[in-house]
Amino acid sequence: MSLSLHPLLKQSRRADITFYRNGRIDVGTRIVRQLALYAGDTLGMAFDDDNNVLIYRHLSAHECHFARHEATLFNQHVGQCSLRCNSINMARYVFQRYHANHHVRCSMGEIVEDKTFGRCVNLVVII
Q: How far apart are the first and last CA of the chain?
């Protein structure tokens, strides 16, 4: 007798960063700690030679204190280490690249040191 099993959960791992269609980007605790991100910092996105998506800290809170920048991080919930930012341009690019509908969930890959951007996190797309 063979059983036909269907998993209830397609993906049980929680995403480290999630892009939403409205431009909201939720950054999880693992990425926040690895990149030493704080509220007020600005998130950046780059691509390496293999066309992988890299996330890095673009500007610190001290560098962008007096100006308004896109993708400025703020606390998602009081007392939690996860952060949130808004960038319709970053979200739009990720949605076009991965042909997603509602949201794109990514897991943290390896950490890459770059001469230009410093410490970057490689993203692995879960969708």
A: 35
Q: Which two tokens stand for residue 16?
A: 């480290």
H helices, E strands: number in the chain: 2, 8
CA atoms within 13 A on the CB side of 64: 17
When computed from its CA atoms, the radius of gyration of the chain, rounded to whole angstroms, is 16
Query: Tens of pLDDT along 46-96?
Result: 877 777 788 888 877 666 556 667 888 999 877 778 899 999 999 998 998
Our measurement of the distance from residue 78's CA atom to the centroid of its chain's CA atoms, rounded to an integer in Å, reads 20
DSSP string, 35-64: HT--TT-EEEEEE-TT--EEEEEEE-TTTT
* Cβ atoms < 10 Å from Cβ of 79: 5
- The C-alpha atoms of residue 41 and residue 65 are separated, in whole angstroms, by 9
Q: What is the pTM of this model?
A: 0.83
Reduced to 3 states, what is the DSSP secondary structure of residue 106?
strand
Side-chain half-sphere CA neighbours of 116 within 13 A: 7
